[in-house]
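Q&A log
Question type: sequence-to-structure
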Amino acid sequence: MDLGWEFLRMSRPSGPFFLAFWLAVALTGCGSSSNHFSISGPASVATDSCNPYVASQVDGSGTAVNTSVDAIVQPGLKSGQGGVYSDSSCTTIALLNLTMTAGTHSVTFYFKAPSSPGTTVLKAGFLISNEENYGNITVTVQ
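Response status: OK
Response body:
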């Protein structure tokens, strides 16, 4: 879709909101890109455990796709309980501090399982992309 690029050429906006919009366009191609996230990690974990998960940007066929700019990746919970962290001891909350460096295609985050059994769905994607481009993984807490 060329409308987004035409808008950028004609209006030349600036400022932090423009930067966020530009990154969204660059990373997701205005929604026309088939790139999305895939999450890998354990499907079953113990209560109160800290577990690594890898969020990778892939194309429609599942092949890894490197990002062309540094981009913030936002992991989180789509449903269920637990916490998402940026360190292996599960002490630093992974709110906006995971960066996929230009030229790479993945980041690692950690899921701290709740103290009671259940099912949690984790999600991850670029901070400023459409939710449809986020990856999900269902985790059973036992």
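Response note: Residues 39 and 86 are 15 Å apart (CA to CA).
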